[in-house]
Specification:
Length: 280
């Protein structure tokens, strides 16, 4: 009887340990471009590790890739992606010539994220029918029956941006930000995506602080320090459900004061994803 009870205790301990481990692991795949690279390939894993959460992160990357191009790649099963993956130990690998179907099946992803390319992010007509078609494709290939679908709300360009698509928004950061918000609201409501990662609002919050409009490195991609950290803080809080304020991970290229602003910018973006909150 003692041996039976001992074996049962050991078995239950193993089951509980595995379950706890699963609860502390978040698997997220982004189907994106350089804006998803900025948001999840840097800092997100470390923010999680500091708070005892393991992030397994995949990013299906093609620079400037639009929803239309993602859909064309999916329907033709094109092996054209750079698949960047950060495993449970924080080790990053890059696999060339990957197919969407292969990356989707690579893990039992908890979250799969979609996004529009930056130049079309505020043009609602550019989302359809590609977002609907792509979401259906991803659902058909996902291996986790409990997977949740996410839309990444990206950021407006810097006020003095030289990006060729800035003219679509009268070269106005405010016009572009409002257009992104409107388009994301409409598109996600239409396809039934209920989880928004408001990186764009977090960056806009940060711009309304003492830092000002200094979150980009080339007027549209995020800066390697503060910009990327702010976006990662936003992803961390939205996916983990834990406030990022007070998280002890700060990259070496971000000051303690900047980190406080970035964390607040992300936190208030989660609370109010479609409204700018000035940070003091």
């Amino acid at each position: 009887m003692f041996k039976k009870n001992l074996l049962l205790t050991v078995f239950l301990f193993i089951v509980i340990s595995i379950h706890a481990s699963d609860n502390d692991t978040i698997r997220v795949l982004t189907i994106g471009n350089s804006f998803s690279e900025d948001a999840v390939e840097n800092n997100l894993y470390d923010l999680g590790k500091t708070d005892n959460i393991v992030f397994i992160i995949g990013n299906m990357f093609i620079g400037g890739c639009s929803l239309e191009k993602h859909w064309n790649n999916a329907t033709n099963n094109n092996a054209v992606y750079s698949y960047r993956k950060i495993n449970a130990k924080g080790i990053k690998t890059v696999t060339a010539n990957e197919k969407l179907s292969e990356a989707i099946a690579d893990e039992k992803w908890d979250y799969i994220s979609l996004q529009q390319n930056s130049g079309n992010s505020g043009i609602i007509e550019s989302y359809f029918p590609y977002l609907s078609n792509l979401l259906s494709y991803v659902k058909a290939h996902a291996t986790n029956p409990k997977v949740k679908y996410v839309f990444h709300e990206t950021w407006a360009y810097q006020s003095n941006s030289t990006h060729k698509d800035f003219g679509k928004y009268d070269k106005s950061q405010t016009v572009m930000y409002k257009a992104i918000i409107k388009s994301v609201k409409q598109a996600t409501k239409k396809v039934g995506i209920h989880i928004i990662i408001p990186s764009g609002t977090a960056i806009q919050n940060g711009r309304n602080s003492s830092i000002g409009d200094h979150f980009c490195r080339d007027t549209y991609h995020l800066s390697l320090g503060l910009g990327r950290y702010t976006a990662a803080c936003t992803w961390f809080e939205r996916l983990s459900g834990k406030s990022v304020i007070g998280n002890q991970f700060i990259p070496s290229n971000v000051s303690a004061e900047q980190a406080k602003i970035a964390q607040k910018a992300a936190h208030y973006a989660i609370k109010r994803p479609y409204k700018i909150t000035p940070i003091f």
